């Protein structure tokens, strides 16, 4: 397996935070369930606003995309070949682990309501429970990691009303519980306008701007094609710029080798990862960027044998930096550099 490393591997750890949206089963008139669904939601949570896009089908295929304003993206899916996760540093989809698969399934709101067996496996058991003057049907399933989870439906309408998903992490509340906003009738299905996910004292709100059923499969559920070498180098370069804007040392270091070769101001040094973490941690603590972006289009080249790549960049930065007296002073500067990558 070939990858680019910046002479700058990221391991993503996802806390599985799940919420479900309610969709009805087949109506009393016997109309069939849809075979596919696509949705988009405007979301907010402890770490700010983001967008969630989901597509799922009755055969268990699914794709989840989450987008943040600063350019970060999470992309997961399940197709006929298995579960996959998009890896920014490799520039292609790789096999997903159980945590990533659980995150995907937990965010398949409509799919779990419509086709739970296809997306979770066979039901383990069903109980009938009395809750707030109404009967509920509580179905037990298993997460991809083998833990029990429960889908609760209103017995009369068949609408999914609550989901209790176990927290896979050893820290935090033991369960992630979903609650729903009032629903609106929609043909043979019932679409909820929003959902709330609660995990201890943390809360996420989902407001659905679009829910569409039975759309043609145009390839959305397929895993994306690998990026070209040139595009992959641009992704790595943009990650470095984003890390500066966010003050995120770990994102900056993620694709880098452990020991880096640095040439600057007539000196050659070889700082290891720990030294670079300390240096950039101090730098980001004293410097805040409100703008950090390419001043010109980067020049990208790849060697003929495809093993080396480089990016020539000219970057303009604006913000503030802590002065000698501890007070912030304006920063407005343009830098130029060369990034060297090896596959």
Task: Provide a compact summary of the structure.
With 343 residues, the chain is α+β, with helices and mostly antiparallel strands. It contains six helices and 22 strands.
Walk me through what this model shows:
The structure is a single chain. With 343 residues, the protein is an alpha+beta fold. It contains 6 helices and 22 strands. The protein has helices at residues 98-106, 109-114, 116-120, 229-246, 249-253, 273-286, and strands spanning 5-6, 36-45, 48-57, 62-67, 73-79, 82-87, 92-95, 125-131, 134-142, 148-154, 160-166, 175-180, 183-186, 189-192, 194-199, 202-213, 262-264, 267-269, 287-294, 299-302, 308-322, 328-342. The strands form 4 sheets. Strands 7-6-5-4-3-2-16-15-12-11-10-9-8 form a 13-stranded antiparallel sheet. Strands 1, 19, 20, 21 and 22 form a 5-stranded antiparallel sheet that branches. Strands 13-14 form a two-stranded antiparallel ribbon.
> How much strand content do the residues show?
over 45%
User: Distance between termini?
Assistant: 10 Å
Q: Enumerate how many helices there are, as a single number.
A: 6
Main sheet: strands, sense, barrel? 13 strands, antiparallel
Supply the helix-strand structural class: alpha+beta
Run of helices and strands: EEEEEEEHHHEEEEEEEEEHHEEHEEEE
Radius of gyration: 24 Å
What is the total tally of β strands? Answer: 22
* Sheet with the most strands: spatial strand order: 7-6-5-4-3-2-16-15-12-11-10-9-8
User: What is the average of the pLDDT values?
Assistant: 86
Question: What's the overall geometry?
Answer: elongated
Spans of at least 5 consecutive residues with low confidence = 8-30
Considering DSSP H and I runs of 4 or more, what fraction of the residues is helical?
A: 10-25%
């Amino acid at each position: 397996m070939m990858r680019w490393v910046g002479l700058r591997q990221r391991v993503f750890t996802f806390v599985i935070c799940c919420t479900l949206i309610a969709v009805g089963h087949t109506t009393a008139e016997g109309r069939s369930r849809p075979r596919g669904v696509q949705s988009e939601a405007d979301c907010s949570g402890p770490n700010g606003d983001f967008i969630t896009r989901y597509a799922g089908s009755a055969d268990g295929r699914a794709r989840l995309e989450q987008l943040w304003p600063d350019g970060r993206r999470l992309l997961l899916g399940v197709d006929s070949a298995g579960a996959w996760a998009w890896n920014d540093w490799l520039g292609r989809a790789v096999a997903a682990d159980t945590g990533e698969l659980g995150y995907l399934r937990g965010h398949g709101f409509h799919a779990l309501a419509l086709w739970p067996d296809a997306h979770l496996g066979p039901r383990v058991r069903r109980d009938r429970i009395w809750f707030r003057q109404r009967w509920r049907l509580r179905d037990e399933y298993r997460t991809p990691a083998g833990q029990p989870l429960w889908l609760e439906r209103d017995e009369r309408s068949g609408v999914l009303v609550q989901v209790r998903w176990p927290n896979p992490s050893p820290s935090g509340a033991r369960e992630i519980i979903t609650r729903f906003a009032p629903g609106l009738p929609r043909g043979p299905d019932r679409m909820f306008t929003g959902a709330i996910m609660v995990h201890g004292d943390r809360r996420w709100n989902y407001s659905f701007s679009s829910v569409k059923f039975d759309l043609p499969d145009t390839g959305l559920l397929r895993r994306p094609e690998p990026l070209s070498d040139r595009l992959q180098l641009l992704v790595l370069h943009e990650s470095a710029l984003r890390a500066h804007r966010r003050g995120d040392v770990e994102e900056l270091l993620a694709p880098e080798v452990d020991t880096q070769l640095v040439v600057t101001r007539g000196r050659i040094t070889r700082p290891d990862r720990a030294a670079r973490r300390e240096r950039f941690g101090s730098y980001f603590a004293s410097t805040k960027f409100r703008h950090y972006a390419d001043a010109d289009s980067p020049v990208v080249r790849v060697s003929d044998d495809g093993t080396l790549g480089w990016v020539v960049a000219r970057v303009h930065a604006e913000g503030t930096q802590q002065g000698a007296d501890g007070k912030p002073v304006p920063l407005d500067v343009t830098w130029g550099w060369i990034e060297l990558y090896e596959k």
